[in-house]
TrEMBL record:
This is Serine/threonine protein kinase. GO terms for molecular function: ATP binding; protein serine/threonine kinase activity. ATP binds at K46. It holds the Pfam family Pkinase. InterPro entries: Kinase-like_dom_sf, Prot_kinase_dom, Protein_kinase_ATP_BS. The keyword Ubl conjugation does not apply. It comes from Thermocrinis albus (strain DSM 14484 / JCM 11386 / HI 11/12). The keyword Nucleotide-binding applies. Keywords: ATP-binding, Kinase, Nucleotide-binding, Serine/threonine-protein kinase, Transferase. It comes from the Bacteria.
Length: 266
């Protein structure tokens, strides 16, 4: 049950238009801004009220403040209510919703569409990778679509698990089974771990099913099969992205983009 109802006004400023969903980091609502700098705009508001989610969302805010890219979701502003330890974050509204729901609604995507989404997300990831960041949680629920004319612009979101490359923080595996690079189970995280996860996203788009059947053992062992209907060149791409040995994968999103262009896949 969402905490707020349609029509309710939060912080005297945000009128709830609808509930968009609940994630690990809080509840998300479609809101209309009633006053201030963004008055009149319809945006997405994420609300975190318990201490653990506030902490994750605080990390996401700190990271997003540094980023500005057409394939990374924009944070518009945030408010922290210190007295109640509540964090409210405003994002651009991604009217298509997330890629998981999109594929579940539409069924598996054509290769052309799937490669188009892949290219958009790879550009967002490239922005992170060239700045020394690792997203750490690339999966369909964290990729959002926005309608622009007749097209959909896909963007990477959810930066609660983002890490700086080479940082010593101890990891516990927080990703989602079906999208976790095998080395992450051994507590190693690299930029190419994001590439593996993105390869899983491509497999999901082409099959409509969770990679590795959502089975943790199969995910760890990288046991998967590519359906017959997938073209040979896309099979080759998938095999390179899902290479179990991270040193044999594309090292960064930049290398992936170069390959897609060279092979004329986008
Ligand atoms: N900017 C946005 N525009 C439109 N819908 C959004 C936006 N941000 C989140 N949502 C939707 O709100 C819901 C909750 O999103 P959220 O990102 O918090 O969690 P999640 O990605 O589903 O799960 P997790 O937090 O575990 O990764 C999802 O249905 C998501 O599609």
């Amino acid at each position: 049950m969402p905490s707020f109802r349609e029509g309710e006004i939060l912080l005297d400023t945000y009128q709830i238009l609808s509930f968009l969903g609940k994630g690990t980091f809080g509840e998300v609502y479609k809101v209309r801004v009633l006053r201030g700098r963004y008055a009149g705009r319809v945006l997405a508001l994420k609300v975190a009220t318990d201490p653990e989610t506030v902490e994750f969302l605080r990390r996401e805010v700190q990271t997003l403040l540094l980023f500005n890219h057409p394939h990374i979701i924009s944070m518009i502003s945030y408010m922290y209510r210190k007295d109640r330890n509540e964090l409210y974050v405003l994002y651009e509204l991604m009217d298509v919703g997330d890629l998981k729901d999109y594929v579940q609604r539409k069924g598996r995507l054509s290769e052309e569409e799937a490669l188009g989404v892949l290219f958009h997300v790879a550009k967002g990831l490239d922005y992170l990778h060239t700045r020394g960041y690792i997203h750490g949680d690339v999966k369909p629920q964290n990729i959002f679509g926005k309608r622009v004319m007749k097209n959909i612009l896909w963007k990477l979101g959810d930066f609660g698990l983002v890490r700086v490359r080479g940082s010593q923080t101890v990891l516990d595996v927080k990703g989602t089974v079906g999208y976790i690079a095998p080395e992450v189970f051994r507590n190693e995280l690299r930029r190419s771990s994001d590439i593996f996860s993105l390869g899983c996203v491509l497999l999901f788009m082409l099959t409509g099913e969770t990679p590795f059947g959502g089975d943790i053992k199969k995910n760890k062992a990288v046991e998967y099969s590519i359906p017959q209907h997938v073209s040979e060149r896309t099979q080759r791409l998938l095999t390179k992205m899902l290479e179990p040995d991270p040193s044999k994968r594309f090292k960064t999103a930049g290398e992936l983009i170069e390959y897609l262009i060279k092979e004329r896949m986008v």
